[in-house]
C-alpha cells in the first residue's frame, strides 16, 4: 500500500514539470508584446524597449525560464506586469470565491447525480430511467454561458428571486453568501452532474447484471442491500474516476461562469490577465489549476484501494 502511494506521488512530479515548461512557452510564443500593451498606443520604440529590459523580456527564453524556475522553487510566482503586485497576493485575494463555487458545485453535483444514476440503473428501461438519460444528454449539451444567462433571466430578471451577479463573503452573512452562489452553482453543476449521472447509471447497471448479484437475489437478499452493499461498491471505481476527470470540466467552467456572474475569482483574474497579456498571472493561475487537478487525480487514484483491494498489490 505504501509503495503504491509513493509511486503515485512520484509519478505526479514529471507531470507538473511538463506543465511548467508548456505554460512558460505557450504564453511567450503567442502573438502580442506585453511591453507594448503596458506602454500604450502612443509609446515610442525606446520606451517599449526600456519596459522590456525592466521586465526581463529582453533576455533569451532559456534564461527567462531558468529565472522563472528558480523563483518558483522559492515559492515566488512573480509580479503582475501591470499592477506590479505579487501574483501570489493577487491569487490569495481571488481564491475564496473560486473555492466556494467549486465546493458548492461538487456538493450539488455529487449529491444529486449519484442517486439519480443509481435510481436509473435500478429501474432500467422505465420512465424514470429515460427521464434521467434525457436530462443527462441535455445537461451535457447545453453551453454553460447560455444556461447562465437563461437562469439569470428567469430567476433574477423575471422572478426577482436571486441576485444577478456579484459575490458576498460568508463572513458577511451565510444567507447572502448562499444566495449569490445558487445560480453559479446550478449553472456549472448541471453539466458536471449530467456526466456523472450517466456514468453512474452505466456502471451500476453493468454490475447489476453480474453473476454474484443474481446469486444474491436468488438467495433472497433484500434489493436495497443488494444495490447499496453489493453493487454500489463494485461500481464505485468508474464513478470516482469520472469525478476526477470531470474536475477538468469544473476548472474550465469556472472561468466562464465567473465571467457570466461577475464573480471576483481566479477565473475572472485569468480572463483579465489574458486580455492584458500579463504573463506572470497567466502562469501562476494555470500552475495552481494544474496542481489542483493533479492533486485531485492523485486522491482519486489512492481512493481506488478503498473500493478494490486488489489495486494495492
Explain what the structure shows.
With 313 residues, the chain is an all-alpha fold. The protein is 78% helix and 0% strand. The protein contains 14 helices and no strands. Helix 5 (87-122) runs antiparallel to helix 6 and helix 12 packs across helix 13.
CATH architecture of the domain at 87-277: Orthogonal Bundle
* Strand percentage: under 5%
Main beta sheet: none
Mean pLDDT: 81
Outline the low-pLDDT stretches: none
- The number of E-state strands comes to 0
The CATH homologous superfamily of the domain at 87-277 corresponds to MetI-like
The amount of helix comes to over 70%
Write the layout of secondary structure elements.
Blueprint: H1 2-29, H2 34-39, H3 45-55, H4 61-73, H5 87-122, H6 127-141, H7 144-158, H8 174-208, H9 211-218, H10 223-234, H11 236-245, H12 247-260, H13 266-276, H14 279-307
Helix pairs in contact: 1-14, 5-6, 5-8, 5-12, 5-14, 6-8, 7-8, 7-12, 8-11, 8-12, 11-14, 12-13, 13-14
Amino acid at each position: 500500500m505504501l509503495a503504491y502511494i509513493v509511486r503515485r506521488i512520484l509519478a505526479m512530479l514529471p507531470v507538473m514539470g511538463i506543465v511548467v515548461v508548456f505554460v512558460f512557452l505557450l504564453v511567450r510564443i503567442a502573438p502580442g508584446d506585453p511591453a507594448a500593451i503596458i506602454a500604450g498606443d502612443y509609446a515610442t520604440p525606446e520606451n517599449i524597449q526600456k519596459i522590456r529590459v525592466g521586465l526581463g523580456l529582453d533576455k533569451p527564453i532559456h534564461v527567462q525560464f531558468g529565472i522563472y524556475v528558480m523563483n518558483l522553487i522559492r515559492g515566488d510566482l512573480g509580479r503582475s506586469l501591470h499592477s506590479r503586485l505579487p501574483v501570489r497576493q493577487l491569487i490569495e485575494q481571488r481564491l475564496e470565491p473560486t473555492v466556494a463555487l467549486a465546493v458548492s458545485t461538487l456538493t450539488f453535483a455529487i449529491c444529486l447525480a449519484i442517486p439519480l444514476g443509481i435510481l436509473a440503473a435500478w429501474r432500467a428501461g422505465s420512465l424514470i430511467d429515460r427521464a434521467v438519460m434525457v436530462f443527462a444528454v441535455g445537461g451535457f449539451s447545453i453551453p454553460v454561458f447560455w444556461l447562465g444567462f437563461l437562469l439569470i433571466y428567469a430567476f433574477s430578471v423575471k422572478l426577482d428571486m436571486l441576485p444577478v451577479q456579484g459575490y458576498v463573503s460568508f463572513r458577511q452573512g451565510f444567507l447572502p453568501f448562499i444566495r449569490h452562489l445558487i445560480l453559479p452553482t446550478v449553472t456549472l453543476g448541471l453539466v458536471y452532474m449530467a456526466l456523472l449521472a450517466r456514468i453512474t447509471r452505466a456502471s451500476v447497471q453493468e454490475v447489476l447484471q453480474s453473476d454474484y448479484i443474481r446469486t444474491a437475489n436468488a438467495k433472497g437478499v433484500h434489493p436495497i442491500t443488494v444495490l447499496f452493499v453489493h453493487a454500489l461498491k463494485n461500481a464505485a471505481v468508474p464513478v470516482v474516476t469520472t469525478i476526477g476527470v470531470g474536475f477538468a470540466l469544473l476548472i474550465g467552467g469556472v472561468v466562464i461562469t465567473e465571467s457570466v456572474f461577475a464573480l471576483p475569482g481566479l477565473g475572472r483574474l485569468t480572463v483579465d490577465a489574458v486580455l492584458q497579456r500579463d504573463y506572470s498571472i497567466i502562469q501562476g493561475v494555470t500552475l495552481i489549476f494544474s496542481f489542483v487537478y493533479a492533486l485531485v487525480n492523485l486522491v482519486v487514484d489512492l481512493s481506488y484501494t478503498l473500493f478494490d483491494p486488489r489495486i494495492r498489490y
